[in-house]
Amino acid sequence: MAVATFSYQQIYRVVAGIPSGRVATYGQVARLAGLAGRARAVGYALSALDGTSPLPWHRVVNAAGAVSPRSGGDGMEQVQRMRLQREGVAFDARGRVRLADFGWQPAEELLRGAQENKKA
DNA sequence: GCAATGACGCTCT
DNA sequence: CAGAGCGCCATTG
Fold first, then answer.
1. Is the CB of A73 under 7 A from strand B?
2. Which nucleotide is nearest, taking the CA of residue A37 and each C1'?
3. Which nucleotide is nearest to A96 (CA to C1')?
4. Tell me: the pLDDT tens digits for A43-84?
5. Residue A91, CB, less than 7 Å from strand B?
6. Distance of CA A89 to the CA centre of its chain
7. Which of A62, A24, A56 is nearest to A43 (CA)?
8. pTM higher than 0.85 for the full model?
9. Å: A19 CA to B3 C1'
10. How far is the CA of A113 from the C1' of B8 (A)?
11. CA dihedral A90, A96, A99, A100 (to 10 degrees)
12. A79 touches strand B (CB under 7 A)
């Protein structure tokens, strides 16, 4: 495994910053992590995580506002939905979240982009 | 170093 | 509004 590359740390930090009851898209996280356009890297970083990771990975969804079907058939996508509903996130009949209401809207200062690397 | 795969995003139909 | 196709970059073999 890559043993947590530099980019991964940025991604994890952003994911950990997602407030409860809100969901962020891979592209959003990627941009905040300084990896604009590399949404795939975000998905890869999360895939590298385990179900035991302390990060709220379940708050990360795709641009469609739906849980992405990961390979392996872990069935964790259902767990992700359950967790989000538990936090107050509502899903529509198609199992998709209304990003217009539950989508995470970070402050502009945070939107500076790749500038948030200060670590406390 | 090259080739294949992947928890994505955007555009077209 | 929903579904399918193409392109992007990063990681792994």
1. no
2. C8
3. C2
4. 999 988 877 788 999 999 999 999 998 877 778 889 999 999
5. no
6. 14
7. A62
8. yes
9. 40
10. 19
11. -80
12. no
- pLDDT-based confidence at residue A103 (cuts at 50, 70, 90): very high
Q: Can you say how many angstroms the Cα of residue A79 is from the centroid of all Cα atoms in its chain?
A: 15
Max intra-chain CA distance, chain A: 41
Å: A68 CA to B8 C1': 9
- Give the residue among A72, A66, A16, A62 at the shortest CA–CA distance from A40: A62
Joined tokens for residue A16: 């950990």
- Residue bearing tokens 């069935």: A75
Helical H runs in chain A? Answer: 6-16, 26-32, 39-48, 76-86, 99-102
